[in-house]
């Protein structure tokens, strides 16, 4: 049982660090709260879909920005999708870069859009690595027979959301 407690402690410390670094926000905790016995792989499934969507969108953005006649409306649509996808899992830093990226689409500056695309890609790779580590810890906890811990602040945020208060 000591192994489970140690893994759970590591998990909580790691997710707290991700929150403190601004890599994730409390939206990720909302995903955790939706996971239960009837859907034990919910978070893994949502994160896997996020990875797939993000890789597709990054490829689509790369192709669109290297066209002879750049369609900034199309690029903005892809960036908007990336922003929504990252917001849905709480990937704050990706979302914030996408907000800036969308303003560059309005300016129609290909060079700045390419720089921003690289910034989005770097943030995505960072988030992907961090989430993969988090999911690995989840698997280790489950394999050792433990439950995945959820930070108390996620519960607090959820109860405040339901009562109309924001945190």
Summary of the model, kept short:
The chain is mainly alpha-helical and 167 residues long.
Structural account:
The chain has helices at 2-20, 26-34, 42-65, 72-89, 92-107, 110-143, 152-163. The model is unreliable at 160-167 (pLDDT under 50). It contains seven helices and no strands.
Radius of gyration over all CA atoms, rounded: 18 Å
Portion in helices: over 70%
End-to-end Cα distance, whole Å, is 35 Å
Query: Looking at the structure, what is the overall shape?
Result: elongated
Can you summarize the main beta sheet? Answer: none
Order of helices and strands: HHHHHHH
Q: Classify the beta-strand content into a percent band.
A: under 5%
Strand-pairing-aware structural class: mainly alpha
Multimerization state: single chain
User: Uncertain segments of ≥5 residues (pLDDT<50)?
Assistant: 160-167
Q: Number of helical segments?
A: 7
Would you tell me the overall average pLDDT? 90
Q: In total, how many beta strands? A: 0
